[in-house]
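Extended Data, panel c. Modelled sequence:
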Amino acid sequence: MYQLLNNDRHDRTQGLSLNNHRYDPSLTKRGKRTFVFCIAASLCCHIFSLLFLQRHSLWYFSPTAVPKEASYLASMDRPQKDKILKEAFLQSPTKTEKESAVEPVRVDILLSFQPVPILPKIGEEEKGNTSFHSTAPLSCDKLLSDHLEISFNLPSLERFNLFEHLPKDLILPSPAPLQQALERAPLLSKTAIAFSREADLDLSQTPPVAILYPNALLSPPLTDLGQKGKFPIFAPLPHLPDLPTLAELETASYSEFFDTEIVFTSLEEGEGYLFAVTLIPHQDLDLPKMRQHYSFLIDRSNSIQKERLSAVKAAIIKALEELELDDSFNIISFDSHVERLDLATLPATSSTIQKAKAFLDQIHLGSFFSPANLSKPLAMTLPSQPDEGIHTAILFTDGETLGKKAVQRDLALDWTAYNNGRVALFAVGLGGDSHLETLDCLAAFNRGKVLYAPTKKGIKRKLLKLIKTIGHPIAKDLSIRAVSCSPTPEIHLYPDALPAPHLYLNEPYVVLGTTKTLDDFILFVQGRIGTKWLNIKKNVSFVNAKKGGGGLKSQLALQKAYWQYICYLYDLNPAHLAEAQAILDPYEIKVAFQ
C-alpha cells in the first residue's frame, strides 16, 4: 500500500514538472524573439534580392527606364544624346544670325501655308528684312488688328522630266522634235496640246525627246522603222476565258421558227405611230410540250339558269376528253359553299374522267340565298409548291357576284397580288352577262382573257377552241424588250404594268407598242421552257408592214385603261375611272369598275 502511494506521488510530481516545463514563460519569450528575428532576416534577404535584380537584371522595371510615351532621345545616355544633337546642328549660329534670331512667339491663331509675301519686321521696313520676327511679345488681338498672316517659305520645286526616269530599253530615239511627233499621232497631239495649255508649256521650244509608241494607232511611219530599230516587246495578254455558248447556259434560240407580221397605224398628230408585231410559230417547231394543270370552276349560284349549268357540264366533259395524258385537272363547283372533285389534280385518264362525270352529275343549282363567292375557289387553284408546269383556271360564271365594289377590289387587287402570275385565268361567258368588263380586267391582270359565247350551246364550242389554243404551251414567264436602231429610241411596249401571257404553239403572240418614228428595231422575247430558257430575236422593219385600222387603236386604249384601273384599285380615287372613261369612250367600251 505504501509502495503504491509513493508511486502515485512520484507520477503526479513528474507530470507536474512536465506541465511546468511546457508552459514556462521564459521559454515562450525566447521563441518569440527567435520568430521575429527570422521574419526580419527574411525581409532583409528579399529586399536585398530585389535591389540586386533591379540593378543587374532586365526582367524587372528600372527607375531610369523610359516609358512608352517618352521620346527616342530620352531613352539614350547623355553622351549619346549630346552626340546626336551635335550632328543635327553642325554649325553654331553666327553673330549675324544670333542678332537676327527670332524669339518664339505663341500665337493662338491658325497658321496659313499659302505662298503670300512675308511682312518685314515691325518698325524696320526700310532695312528690307524679308523675315518676320519680333523681340517683344505680341498678343493675338494685335496680330488680328494688323492683319498679319504668318507664313512659311516653301522650297522651290524643280521640274520633273519623265523621260529621264524611264527605262532605256522602252525608249526609242527620235531626232524629230516633239511637235512633229505629235503631228504624226493626232490622238496624242490633242491630249498633249491640251495639257500644255494647262501647264503653260511652249511645245515649239521643247528640245527633241524620245517618243513612246504604246499601240499601233500611235506607231511611227514605216519609213522610220529601219532607223529607229524594233518595237519593244510587251508582255503578252493573259488568256481570257471564252464566253459560254447558249447550250452551256441552257438557252435555246428559236428565232427562225417564228414568222413576224407587222401592222401599224398613225396616232393623233404629233404622237407617233402604233404598231403590233405578231409572232407566228411554225407547226413543225420541235419544242417539248409543258405539262399543264387545269382547274374548271363552275358557278352554280341561283342566277345561273338550269340549261346553262347543263351546257357547262357537258362542255367540261367534252374538254376532258381532249386533254393530253401528261396533263392533269380538277373540278370545283361553288356558290356560297365550295366543293371540288379531289384534293389534288388528277391525271387525264379514262378512270379519272369517269369520276369527273359522276361528280358533275351531282352538281345542282344553289338556293336563292346562296350567292357565289369567287375568292375561295380561285384560292384553291393556286399551287402549293412551284413546279415546271403551267397552271390554268377556266371560270364559268355570269358575273353577278362582281357587282359589289368590295368584291371587285378583293379579286382584282388582293387575289391578283397573291397569285403573282402563277395561275393563268380564263373565263367563258355569254354575251349578255353583266359585269363582263370587270371579268375581262380580272383575266387580263392574270395572263388570261375572256371568251364570249352568243348562245348557251356555244359554250362548248368556245371551251373546245380554248383547249385547242392553249393545249400546247411552250414557254412561260416571258420578258419582252425592244432595242431601237436609231440614236434616239422612243419605243414603248404593252402591257407594261401587267404580266405577259404565256407562249402557246397554236396561238399567235401579239406584241403591241408605240414609237415616235418608223425606224427599225430589234425585238427580244425571252421565256422559260422548264429548266431552260427560250430566246427569240426578230429584226422589225416597217418597209413591208401593213396598214392597221381602228381595232388596233382600241387595243391600245384598253391597255391604257388597265393602268388607270390599277391606280384606282390602290387609292380608290374616282378620277382614275374618269380618265379611263375618257380613253374608252371613242371606242364604245364600258369602264370595268363602277
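Confidence is low (pLDDT under 50) at residues 13-23, 58-72, 91-152, 174-237. This feature is highlighted in the accompanying rendering.
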